[in-house]
Amino acid sequence: MEFNKAYSRQEFVRFLQNSFLPEDFVPSEEEVWFRTKMTYSTEAVKLGTCQSLELVVYEVKHRSKHNARVSLSKEAFRMLADETQDRALVVFVPEDSNENYRFSLIEITLDAADDSARVTKRYSNPRRYSYFLGEGIAYYTPNKYLNEKGRVASKEDLLSRFSVEVLTKEFYQELSDWYAWAIKIIRFPNNIDDKDDDAKFNNEGAIRLITRLIFVWFLKQRHLIPEEFFDERYIADNLIEGFNPHAMVDLFSKSNESKYYKAILQNLFFAMLNSPITTEGGKELSERHFRNGRGDYDNNKLMRYESYFKNPQLFVDLANRTVPFLNGGLFDCLDDKDHGMYYDGFSDRESVKNSLIIPDYLFFGEEVGKNIDLSEWYGDKKKKKVSARGIIDILKRYNFTVEENTPFDKEVSLDPELLGKVFENLLASYNPETQTTARKQTGSFYTPREIVQYMVDESLVAHLKRTVGEELEPQYRQLMQYSDDDVELTAEQRKSIMQSLYNCKILDPACGSGAFPMGILQQMVHILNRIDPDNSGWKEMMLQKALDETSEAYRNSSSDERKELIADIERSFDESINRPDYARKLYLIENCIYGVDIQPIAIQISKLRFFISLVVDQNTNADPTDNFGIRPLPNLEAKFVAANTLIGLVKKDAPLFDSAEIKAKENELKIAKHKIFGAKNVKTKRKHKNIVNHLRQEIADMLYENGAVGNDEARQLASWDMFDQNVSSPFFEPEWMFGVKDGFDIVIGNPPYLRIQGIRNDNPKFADYLVHNYKTATGKFDLYVAFIEKGYKICKKQGVLNFIMPTKWTNSDYGEGVRSFCLEEKPYMRIINFSSYQVFNASTYTGLQWFIKNECPILDYIQLSHNIDTPDKLEFFLRDINNNSYTVYPFIEFSSKPWKLTSDSLSSDIISKISIHPHLNTILNCISQGIVTVGDDIFVMKGKITCDYFEGFSEKINKRICIESKLMMPLLKGDDVKRYASLENTYFVLYPHHVLNGKTVPYTEYEMQTLFPKAYSYLLSFKDELIAKKIKYKTNPTYWYSLHRSRDIAMFKSIKILTPEISLGCNMSLDENKFYHNTQIYTLQPNEYYKQYINTILGILNSKLFWFYISNTGNILRGGFFRFKTKYLEDFPVPNLNTSNKSIVKSIDTLVFRIISSKKNNPNIDTSIDENKIDSLVYHLYDLTYDEILIIDPQTLIKREEYERTQLE
């Protein structure tokens, strides 16, 4: 099959039947009727079925002008669901042209739900994997995977044919070989006066070259770069004099001529993409030209190397017919010519040209590098003889797509995420200067897309729950899905969600190549698309903000600037110019998303990805005076900065930072940065850049003069230049750099993993700083622990910190600082421990971890099972997790000592083991709450009993009263019951009941009048109120003075065990004093026989084993508290105490008696030693192993040797 030809149904079916699908494929040609209204799909035909692969083949015609991938995917998912198919191959063909088409593998999980009226065919876990085929596409990839591999052998084989990961890995291997070869050869001038530094930044220079070139390749997919610039023959014949990349200087070596990089690529990068075509508002193509004098040596927007060209004007004309001005600092030349620093080496100066060596043969040729020895670089002897293609030939072999894939819709081609993967993986390459890998130096790892997506989803859900409302969580999760299910939301709720997203401040504090900022941008855009598909609400919101007369931007803008701002918004939303997602992205980027990384090149690549995401949603045209339809890109200097996140600015007096004078200047700065973001030309950008730099100096001086910062800090503030792409700031200050003062709503990312030993070797000053400034930096810590503390501190209240990082801090010695920090700050935490599954190809065991600031201090924990060993299995595991999937750990169980966390499956095994014993309710008379009055302010009082009367204070009438003492019973409330404590009451309850014929009943009204006249008189004044409540509660109003629930007097009068209804840990005590109690306390009353074992029962119920049981079988409340209810208590298994283990039972009884006696004499006495002994005896009673004890109580003080020795005895 020739995949680089136009689509033919007949040829394609023949290919499927004879070459691709198993022999049981049966062709057909049946029209498919759409059961759901489609926006883009116009008709569908069933082309056949394949029983062995359980799939159907369809052809779908569509009218999408831009071949809208996500929308077409959703329509295809819907068609499959309606057809009750869960796997299909689908050919998507534009109805007006068959030149290009997509060939997709689509899978869904069907879920048919009966809604009584009809069967709603719902689906989940949709996936689409596509090849873009037809005229002009690169033939190599589809030919290799669809033709050369022959017939599909299995479902797994089919999936592998559509695997983006396999393709990316293959591409990266080719690119990696080229990189390893190239860095031995290339040279950059750097400091022109230092002849020995030309190879100093080879790695960084080569990475920068690769990423710039790949970015250009993506632009080429939008036909924004001339194909002629990459055509070796055309260049030789028409552009460059004497161009021959294969020229030899002798029998063994090629020429180091570097004409292609200098004349074509550098001019493209710095003087075309970075230079306007016309003057602002002009129609003459006058701005792109070669230098014409010595005075413009420092103007990097003018072309160089004119003498290299056969026809210089042809080169300019080619650019002006195709190449737009992109703005945004994207391709700013990094040279500082005034100071003799030539990082890029873009110069006509002979000494610079001679020092810049990137030979032409590195770019062109199928096997230009033969028998290259890369074994040392890879550390692999098999790499002694490697062949490398020129990088242009490598790029030509693969298909590229400018749209970033999502986990739900992947094109089998190289997407912009590739920039990140290339960057992170090349950083992992061997660095001859340090004899280590660059990845190990930086601690950077590239996070897979599926994990980024999951973290982004969960963080956005948490944000929306906080800002819009927890009750809409199901709808938020629906919005995240790439399905066509209707989401039930009111117009007001949609508006609230939109506002919440716009107000959401998001930071990746170690952003690398931008995986998380890009992932969160994609999902926010997706949500906006679902709640506001026509963009009307989003546009209205942007216009309202622009016209808000109270806003700083409005007050500080001229009338003309306001008009231009409104016009700019109108242009952003104009769908004849831009696709709808453009405006969504633009304003989210400006207002919401921030990134920091210590490496300047990482920041540059993050910007590249954001620029591509905007370019893809702009409609191009052929008019150079309109910049080919491409709006100059925003300036992202105030969105992504190179800085050391962990070093903060020392503020002497924080309040001074908020003085009115400084605040006014900061407002000016904020406005200037906003104007830089939207500056569309060099002149405007330069104007506001100067304003920004001037304001920064003013503010720094004011801060120093006011004593807010010291002289060094003021100098740091003033010297930080957001526009200098070559340097990384030695400090990070969110307010200074981003204007974010109150913290971020979401801090998300993958912090670096670096041990302190390595940091101390490379940068001892930084290591000392961490130790002295971070509570988490204890022992032989890893750098990520400091990122936890920093990330948490810069979150706003209830903000979300979400990292993928090692989980080792929970149980390692060096993690003591983090554990103490968590216990002190008391965040809500969630950990998904990946256990032995390695997300990264390195010996690093990680997990997903959330810290929500100032929420309930509990840890939700889950651990992967060992059978999860592939990314797909991991993704399905993550998607199946719900709020009930976690093991809940209240912070009360933790100390700074290692936390030995386990997942639910292990806990379940223990519960199953002990559940062989009889239930607790078989040895009790009752498990019951206490009394319920008809008004505590009437019936419950403080006071004391003197002889026959109670003297106390009634809150209801706000005065002291006297009541017959026979009706006043000592009452305990929940807080009165403490673990093993001697019980004392503060309150009394008016209890107008007695026992009659063995039952607890109210006194008659006559009895009340005659026997208890004072009590009756007191209650009589509330008769009407009490009757009304009785009627309301549907109880007998005849006894209007009685309690709502009196309970059984016999229960209160007996010896019993009491527990608070809500408790953090087991806090049960023995009541020998016949206390009454309210509903905040439960009574556990042993039957007559088991009263002799009441101390032993109390010991068991106060044990760690009992708390473990109810924590895993009941519901933990916010804060880690447990609500004791009969249904949770009654099924607790208790061994037969009278027949077995008599010595253990007796020992527990003795210890409990001793503890109770000790606490009677001294309530504050430490009885923990005896309590630990009881725990050990209880474990023996249930025949538990020591390893099971560690699951029940990871912090146990019981020693293995001692426990196992006792077990044997």
What do these coordinates show?
With 1209 residues, the protein is α+β, with helices and mostly antiparallel strands. The strands form nine sheets. The protein has a nine-stranded mixed beta sheet with strand order 16-15-14-17-18-20-19-21-22, sandwiched between helices. A seven-stranded mixed beta sheet has the order 1-2-3-4-5-6-11. Strands 26-25-24-28-27-34 form a six-stranded mixed beta sheet. A hairpin with an 8-residue loop joins strand 1 and strand 2 (41-50). Helix 24 runs antiparallel to helix 25 and helix 39 (1094-1101) crosses helix 42 (1142-1161). The longest helix is centred in the middle third of the chain and has 25 residues, at 682-706.
Layout: helices, strands, pairs:
Layout: H1 9-20, E1 25-32, E2 41-50, E3 55-62, H2 69-82, E4 87-94, E5 100-114, E6 119-134, H3 140-148, H4 155-161, H5 164-182, E7 190-191, H6 202-221, H7 232-239, H8 259-271, H9 312-320, E8 341-342, H10 350-355, E9 369-372, H11 375-378, E10 386-388, H12 391-397, E11 409-411, H13 417-427, E12 430-431, E13 436-437, H14 438-442, H15 449-467, H16 473-480, H17 491-503, E14 506-508, H18 515-531, H19 536-547, H20 552-555, H21 559-573, H22 580-591, E15 593-597, H23 600-615, E16 640-642, H24 660-678, H25 682-706, H26 711-719, H27 734-738, E17 744-749, H28 756-762, H29 764-773, H30 783-793, E18 795-806, H31 816-825, E19 828-833, E20 846-852, E21 858-863, H32 871-880, E22 887-890, H33 904-914, E23 924-929, H34 936-939, E24 940-946, E25 949-954, E26 959-964, E27 968-972, E28 987-990, E29 993-996, E30 999-1002, H35 1005-1011, H36 1013-1020, H37 1023-1032, H38 1049-1053, E31 1056-1060, E32 1062-1063, E33 1069-1071, E34 1076-1077, E35 1081-1086, H39 1094-1101, H40 1104-1113, E36 1122-1123, H41 1126-1129, H42 1142-1161, H43 1168-1181, H44 1186-1192, ...
Parallel strand pairs: 3-4, 6-11, 14-15, 14-17, 15-16, 17-18, 19-21, 27-34
Antiparallel strand pairs: 1-2, 2-3, 4-5, 5-6, 7-8, 9-10, 12-13, 18-20, 19-20, 21-22, 23-35, 24-25, 24-28, 25-26, 27-28, 29-30, 31-33, 31-35, 32-36
